[in-house]
């Protein structure tokens, strides 16, 4: 055990025994030197203390005893019967010190006892006796250990008292016990410097970087300083190159100052890696054998949300090379705290995009969000600030919701809830806050306080032990209640010890702890509670805390709390009914302003113990004061939309929570919060500001007591990008080289720092055998061009160069050293490379490339340039020329680009010797018209002034318009004046002429290449000059020239219409150079709204023949229009005027609105009609034909003001002169219609037209005589003229070809048609206008079908004509008297002559004497019965038959006897 160190010493920062011995000796010497303690102290104790030394165990060293067998070392392991270790034995007291030299009296006695024991061991071997001796020895050791502990306590008390009584004797200057050590770290890693400092009084420690004090608040999150127990540390987060420096820590107190130094070197993962350092993570990955390159693109920016909304933050992560199964580690941080998935935070990784979704924004979510992507090769991060604004209040004017609700102290009886005050109160101060609780598992919220509390901390009582609760807070002002805050995390109401036991981890061993020496004591009354104090006091409550009493028997201990008004001895128990279980208690309902003392008693089953010492008098009220207002507020420009605001911290601020910042546009008096979550630093970046506006800011501090007064308003600051020194130039190249000088060129820095670059500084150094020498300045004064000749070089020596850019903010860092160039004179014949390539006017299909000629001309002057182009990602072989013919100008507009394609360009110069070196390649540029791009607009104002106007929407405060002609900046403004106002610039031509022809361009600095050009050609100049002349001598534009028209009553109106005239415009009316004026003859009118100018005359007389002119004037603009009315034109107008005048008078009585005319209906009826007006009941309308009145009949009608006469079937007899006469007391009006000769012919032609249009298509049919062509019309008139055509020739009719009309059918008959009759036939209706023709093709199949049908019909007709027939002569019934003679004859036809057969009652009969049958001449058949009798009655038939058919005739013979007839009559 002598070689081991107890665990409680290992935890100490210095555990070597020598150091502890010196410290102990120092304490003993101080104790001995004190007269007070030396006089009354124990000499034995002093002698024992003089040789104290730290030991790891309480046993004696065996070498100090007599030479007897070594005694077994004491052990602290507990074993079972099988000698298996089951735990530790912890003695109640254990010695920890031993004598350095000599033995004390007690030790000597112990040695003697031990010697005696050894002697007795030889005599007595009883195991029981050995145990008794061992027990006595251990008791003695415990008593000695207790005495030493008591002595150490007394020494410590004496030391503390001595320090208070005589501090000067203990003071000593700072001393570094452990100094900080230097570190070499990789970029983006964290590093920590720490040291241990001793000294009295406690030294004040300050850290420095390159002798500049480090302020953690100046760069929040970068530095973190800590000081605990004399251990001081500086932590640097995410190191970069700027952190490479010498760091100094200075410790100072009243006795002196001491410093220690350490260096930090930050390395990048490029080039060779220091083998002495751990392998950087950016190195090759052993798992894959490759290096991952991580790029975070498509990043989220500074964002603004509102409470209750959902916000998604996302970035696209590109990892090269892409491995299908490899997944990087994606982590999200808020204010450097790692976020975990929860109901508020949803994290998603899709394989190439990381997304963080804040499902329900609250002000707790405001802060700096960081995405960290970790691969096997390292990590990349990106950060942006997220602001969360208050949601709209449910009640107008109610304050914002509190935030950050937490539970600080949770006990069995109560839980202390804290929160942060909102930033806005909406114009009415917050009266206080209400705290609500909800038991986990329910949705029932219970308000915990009846009256609002102003303190942002409140103990919630009345909880049920063991149950979990969540809390929320609401703020209230005069207008109403705010929305509730976000719910706190659940917390259980239980004893902290129980909670720690539930959360704690298991002991590092698995055995049990066995406590020896003492047995549990019987239940006794507990002692006094210890260290009672008031931990928190407000006007609403007081919180007490104490420690349980010392000793044992703490099981079941509870407490009673008593209070006493100061100045009295009356103690009153607060919790009379139920004692509290936790050593903390909150008291309510105390009188504000009164002073109280408090004490606590313990109680258990044995009784109530003695009270604790009372607390000092405590006045009920807020012990925590509202912080004082922050100090001076200083705003600083940052970006186009943000400002950095810094301020002096509140001098009197206890338990500061943070600061709220508000901003306001100057003179608006409207203050808006810049942050809705308090910030702990004294520096904050306010985002979301309006570019170009001036803002003022104010700050107030906040702690649990409330919000401080606002600081004084800051000075106004304009929101625009801050000015910084420019980035280093790049692309250094050599343009010319002679024996002792070289001309260099370089490219402008990518970042110019927000201000124009004022110049460049060039440094050079010689390189000898690959080793560079020191840098030397090439120019003391800055050069404005991006080219410079470095002189005083040595021929055939090698040099490197670097360039620094400067602006008004200072000189930037130098560029990377250039390539090594050899200084030797160029002798090549071709030119050197052009330089300073610039790209302007980038559009989707074109851009303009500018360059400067080469410095080295070659053997002959440069006479042209060639431009090459290729896609940015294309190989070198893809270079191609833009211009086949060299251009002499130092610029070229490149057209026909492919939209969104990225291109690079280079230029070559040529002279007579050939084409020279190529220039440096430009940066890649995409062919894309940026949104908001404007073009130069040429305008000619009202005064004829020609100007070019350019507008830029992306200007910054430092942007300027630069006008150029032929892409050379203009310096002579004698012919052109430039006027700039806001984001618009105007270039005005003084006296435009041929000297001004060229390309004019405008570039806006400090933008992303906003530029445009305008080509003023000779034709364009001519056009602009014409427009300028028109504007200088303006003419009032006319919509219509002077015109004339007739109005009712024959009045004459002269009028014109101007495009636009102002209210001050006027008109002069002139006739034959004589001015006209308003009067009875002339009525003038000028409508300035419509521009219509008119002059009205009642009538025209011969004196009005001439020229009428309207002269217009509006300001300086003039115009006139004339109308000449002479000769026939005037006479026609005058005649028409007179006619209109008469017409007007005519229409005063009954008159014809539409005169008599005719209309042919679809039924080919002629309708004579006229429209009349101004009719009365007394008005008569009479119809006449040829002077004779037509009487009223069904053909006359009058409906809806129209008189009608219908002629149903018109013929020649209907021709004549028709007249209608209207007559009443107001007058008479007559209308005639001549329907004779030509008039009737025109009418009939219209009728014929209707007939022709009603005709059906020409069709083909067959008859027994031939083929017939026919058409039908709806109505046929005998006067209709029709012409039949065969093969476009009129048909000459004959016996074989005839035409005719049957009803409404018009036909053409072709008798006995032959093949010669095939062809095209047509019928033409003549209507006097060209007629209508219907055609049909009689040929081919149509002819064959028709001819076949004709043959069939012809045969059928022949058969019908030749068949046997009974033509007639036979009656149906013959009634004859018996005895009479019957003779019947009928005609028979047929070819050939038919056979005749007679039948009686369907039986054939033959001729005999009684019945004589005859057939004569083949035509006549007779039937004769000479004397009929009753047997002759019956049905008789004659049947004729030949080859074409058979026909029969029937008759009935009825014979009667006269007597029968007479009888019947009777």
Keywords:
1466 residues; mainly beta; 5-stranded mixed β-sheet; 12 helices; 42% strand; disordered N terminus
Characterization of this structure:
The chain is mainly beta. It is 12% helix and 42% strand.
Topology:
Layout: H1 7-10, H2 17-33, H3 35-40, H4 43-49, E1 52-54, E2 77-79, E3 85-90, E4 97-99, H5 105-123, H6 127-165, E5 172-178, E6 183-186, E7 191-200, E8 204-209, E9 212-213, E10 223-228, E11 231-236, E12 245-253, E13 256-267, E14 293-297, E15 303-306, E16 311-320, E17 329-334, E18 337-338, E19 345-349, E20 353-358, E21 367-375, E22 378-389, E23 403-410, E24 414-420, E25 432-439, E26 445-447, E27 457-461, E28 468-476, E29 491-492, H7 496-503, E30 512-515, E31 530-537, E32 541-547, E33 558-565, E34 571-573, E35 584-588, E36 595-604, E37 607-611, E38 618-619, E39 633-637, E40 643-647, E41 656-665, E42 672-673, E43 683-686, E44 694-703, E45 706-707, E46 717-718, E47 730-737, E48 742-747, E49 759-768, E50 771-772, E51 776-777, E52 787-790, E53 798-807, E54 810-811, E55 821-822, E56 835-840, E57 847-852, E58 864-871, E59 880-881, E60 891-894, E61 902-911, E62 914-918, E63 925-926, E64 937-940, E65 946-951, E66 961-965, E67 968-969, E68 976-981, E69 984-989, E70 998-1004, E71 1011-1016, H8 1018-1032, E72 1038-1046, ...
Parallel strand pairs: 3-30, 6-13, 15-22, 97-104
Antiparallel strand pairs: 1-4, 2-3, 5-7, 7-11, 8-9, 8-12, 10-11, 12-13, 14-16, 16-20, 17-18, 17-21, 19-20, 21-22, 23-24, 24-27, 25-26, 25-28, 28-29, 31-32, 32-35, 33-34, 33-36, 36-37, 36-38, 39-40, 40-43, 41-42, 41-44, 44-45, 44-46, 47-48, 48-52, 49-50, 49-51, 49-53, 53-54, 53-55, 56-57, 57-60, ...
Helix pairs in contact: 2-6, 5-6
């Amino acid at each position: 055990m002598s070689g081991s160190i107890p665990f409680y010493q290992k935890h100490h920062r210095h555990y070597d025994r020598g150091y502890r011995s010196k410290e102990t000796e120092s304490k003993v010497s101080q104790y001995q030197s004190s007269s007070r303690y030396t006089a009354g102290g124990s000499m034995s104790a002093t002698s024992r203390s003089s040789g104290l030394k730290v030991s790891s165990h309480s046993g004696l060293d065996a070498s100090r005893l007599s030479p007897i067998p070594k005694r077994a070392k004491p052990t602290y392991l507990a074993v079972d019967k099988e000698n298996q270790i089951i735990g530790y034995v912890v003695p109640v007291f254990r010695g920890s010190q031993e004598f350095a030299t000599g033995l004390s009296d007690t030790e000597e006695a112990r040695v003697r006892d031990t010697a005696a024991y050894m002697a007795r061991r030889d005599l007595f071997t009883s195991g029981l006796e050995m145990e008794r001796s061992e027990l006595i020895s251990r008791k003695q050791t415990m008593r000695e250990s207790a005495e030493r502990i008591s002595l150490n306590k007394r020494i410590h008390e004496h030391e503390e008292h001595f320090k208070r009584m005589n501090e000067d004797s203990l003071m000593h200057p700072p001393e570094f016990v452990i100094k900080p050590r230097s570190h070499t770290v990789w970029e983006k890693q964290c590093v920590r410097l720490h040291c241990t400092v001793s000294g009295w009084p406690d030294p004040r420690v300050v850290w420095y970087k390159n002798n500049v004090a480090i302020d953690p608040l100046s760069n929040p999150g970068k530095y973190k300083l800590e000081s605990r127990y004399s251990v001081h540390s500086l932590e640097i987060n995410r190191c970069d190159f700027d952190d490479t420096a010498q760091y100094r820590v200075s410790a100072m107190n009243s006795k002196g100052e001491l410093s220690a130094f350490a260096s930090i070197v930050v390395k990048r993962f490029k080039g060779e890696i220091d083998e002495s350092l751990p392998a950087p993570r950016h190195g090759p990955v052993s798992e894959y054998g490759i290096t991952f390159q991580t790029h975070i693109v498509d990043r989220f920016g500074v964002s603004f949300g509102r409470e209750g909304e959902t916000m998604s933050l996302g970035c696209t992560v590109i990892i090269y090379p892409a491995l299908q199964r490899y997944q990087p580690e994606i982590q999200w941080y808020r204010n450097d705290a790692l976020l975990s998935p929860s109901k508020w935070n949803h994290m998603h990784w899709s394989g190439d995009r990381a997304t963080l979704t804040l499902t329900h924004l609250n002000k707790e979510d405001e802060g700096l969000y960081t995405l960290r992507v970790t691969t096997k090769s390292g990590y990349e991060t990106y950060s942006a600030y997220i602001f969360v604004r208050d949601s709209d209040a449910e009640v107008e004017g109610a304050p914002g919701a509190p935030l950050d609700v937490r539970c600080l102290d949770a006990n069995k009886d109560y839980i202390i809830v804290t929160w942060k005050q909102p930033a806005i109160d909406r114009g009415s101060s917050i009266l206080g806050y209400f705290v609500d609780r909800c038991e986990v598992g329910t949705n029932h919220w219970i308000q915990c306080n009846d009256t609002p509390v102003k303190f942002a901390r409140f103990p919630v009582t009345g909880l049920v032990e063991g149950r979990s609760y969540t809390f929320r807070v609401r703020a209230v002002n005069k207008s109403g209640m705010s929305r509730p805050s976000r719910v706190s995390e659940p917390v259980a109401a239980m004893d902290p010890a129980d909670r720690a036991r539930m959360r704690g981890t298991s002991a590092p061993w698995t055995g049990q702890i066995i406590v020896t020496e003492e047995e549990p004591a019987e239940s006794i009354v507990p002692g006094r509670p210890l260290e009672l104090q008031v931990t928190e006091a407000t006007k609403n409550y007081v919180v007490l805390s104490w420690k349980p009493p010392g000793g044992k028997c703490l099981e079941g201990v509870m407490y009673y709390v008593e209070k006493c008004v100061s100045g009295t001895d009356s103690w009153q128990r607060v919790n009379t009914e139920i004692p509290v279980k936790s050593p903390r208690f909150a008291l309510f309902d105390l009188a504000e302003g009164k002073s109280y003392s408090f004490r606590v008693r313990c109680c258990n089953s044995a009784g109530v113990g003695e009270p604790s010492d009372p607390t000092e008098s405590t006045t009920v009220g807020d012990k925590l004061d509202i912080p004082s207002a922050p100090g001076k507020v200083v705003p600083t420009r940052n970006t186009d939309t943000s400002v950095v605001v810094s301020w002096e911290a509140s001098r009197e601020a206890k338990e500061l929570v943070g600061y709220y910042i508000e901003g306001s546009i100057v003179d608006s008096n409207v203050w808006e919060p810049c942050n809705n979550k308090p910030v702990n630093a004294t520096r904050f970046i306010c985002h979301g500001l309006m570019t170009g506006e001036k803002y003022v800011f104010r700050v107030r501090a906040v702690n649990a007591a409330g919000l401080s007064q606002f600081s004084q308003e800051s000075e106004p600051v304009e929101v625009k990008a801050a000015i910084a020194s420019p980035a280093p130039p790049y692309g250094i190249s050599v343009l010319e080289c002679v024996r002792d000088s070289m001309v260099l060129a370089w490219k402008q820095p990518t970042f110019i720092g927000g201000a124009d670059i004022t110049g460049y500084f060039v440094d050079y150094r010689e390189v000898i055998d690959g080793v560079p020498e020191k840098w030397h300045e090439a120019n003391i004064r800055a050069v404005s061009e991006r080219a410079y000749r470095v002189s005083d070089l040595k021929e055939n020596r090698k040099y490197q160069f670097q360039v620094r850019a400067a602006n008004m903010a200072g000189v930037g860092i130098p560029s990377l050293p250039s390539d090594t160039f050899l200084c030797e004179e160029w002798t090549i014949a071709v030119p050197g490379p052009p330089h300073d390539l610039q790209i302007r006017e980038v559009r989707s299909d074109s851009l303009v490339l500018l360059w400067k000629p080469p410095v080295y001309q070659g053997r002959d002057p440069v006479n042209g340039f060639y431009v090459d182009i290729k896609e940015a990602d294309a190989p070198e072989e893809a270079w191609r020329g833009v211009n086949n013919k060299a251009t002499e100008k130092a610029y070229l507009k490149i057209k026909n680009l492919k939209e969104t394609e990225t291109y690079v360009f280079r230029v070559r110069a040529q002279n007579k010797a050939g084409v020279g070196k190529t220039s440096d390649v430009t940066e890649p540029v995409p062919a894309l018209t940026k949104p908001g791009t404007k073009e130069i607009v040429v305008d000619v104002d009202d005064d004829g002034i020609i100007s070019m106007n350019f507008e830029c929407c992306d200007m910054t405060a430092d942007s300027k318009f630069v006008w150029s002609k032929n892409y050379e900046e203009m310096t002579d403004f004698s012919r052109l004046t430039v006027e700039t106002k806001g984001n618009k610039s105007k270039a005005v031509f003084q006296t435009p002429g041929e000297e001004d022809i060229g390309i004019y361009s405008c570039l806006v600095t400090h933008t992303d290449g906003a530029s445009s050009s305008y080509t003023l050609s000779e034709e364009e100049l001519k056009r602009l000059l014409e427009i300028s002349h028109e504007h200088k001598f303006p003419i009032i534009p006319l919509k219509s020239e002077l015109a004339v028209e007739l109005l009712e009553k024959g009045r004459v109106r002269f009028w014109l219409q101007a495009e636009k005239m102002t209210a001050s415009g006027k008109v002069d009316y002139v006739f034959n150079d004589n001015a006209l004026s308003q009067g009875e003859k002339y009525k003038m009118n000028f409508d300035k709204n419509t521009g219509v100018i008119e002059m009205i005359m009642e009538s025209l007389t011969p004196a009005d023949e001439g020229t009428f002119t309207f002269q217009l004037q509006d300001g300086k603009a003039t115009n006139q229009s004339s109308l000449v009315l002479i000769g026939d034109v005037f006479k026609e107008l005058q005649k028409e005027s007179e006619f209109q005048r008469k017409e007007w008078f005519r229409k005063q009585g009954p008159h014809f609105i539409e005169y008599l005319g005719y209309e042919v209906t679809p039924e080919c009826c002629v309708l004579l009609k006229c429209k009349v007006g101004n009719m009365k009941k007394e008005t008569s309308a009479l119809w006449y034909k040829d002077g004779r009145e037509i009487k009223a009949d069904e053909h006359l009608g009058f409906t809806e003001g129209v008189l009608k006469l219908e002629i149903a079937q018109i013929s020649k007899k209907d021709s004549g002169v028709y007249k209608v006469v209207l007559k009443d007391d107001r007058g008479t009006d007559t209308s005639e219609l001549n329907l004779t000769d030509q008039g009737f012919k025109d009418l009939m032609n219209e009728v014929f037209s209707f007939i022709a249009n009603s005709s059906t298509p020409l069709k083909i049919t067959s008859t027994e005589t031939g083929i017939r062509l026919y058409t039908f019309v709806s109505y046929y008139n005998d006067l209709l003229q029709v012409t039949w055509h065969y093969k476009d020739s009129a048909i000459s009719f004959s016996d074989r070809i005839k035409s005719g009309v049957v009803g409404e059918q018009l036909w053409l008959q072709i008798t006995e048609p032959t093949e010669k009759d095939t062809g095209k036939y047509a019928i033409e209706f003549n209507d006097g206008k060209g007629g209508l023709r219907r055609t049909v093709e009689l040929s081919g199949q149509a002819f064959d079908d028709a001819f076949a049908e004709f043959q069939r019909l012809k045969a059928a007709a022949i058969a019908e004509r030749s068949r046997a027939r009974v033509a007639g002569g036979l009656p149906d019934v013959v009634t004859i008297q018996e005895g009479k003679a019957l003779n019947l004859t009928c005609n028979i036809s047929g070819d050939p002559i038919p056979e005749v057969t007679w039948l009686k009652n369907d039986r054939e009969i033959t001729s005999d004497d009684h019945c004589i049958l005859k057939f004569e001449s083949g035509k006549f058949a007779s039937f004769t019965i000479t004397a009929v009798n009753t047997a002759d009655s019956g049905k008789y038939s004659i049947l004729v038959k030949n080859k074409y058919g058979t026909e029969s005739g029937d008759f009935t013979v009825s014979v009667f006897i006269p007597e029968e007839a007479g009888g019947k009559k009777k």
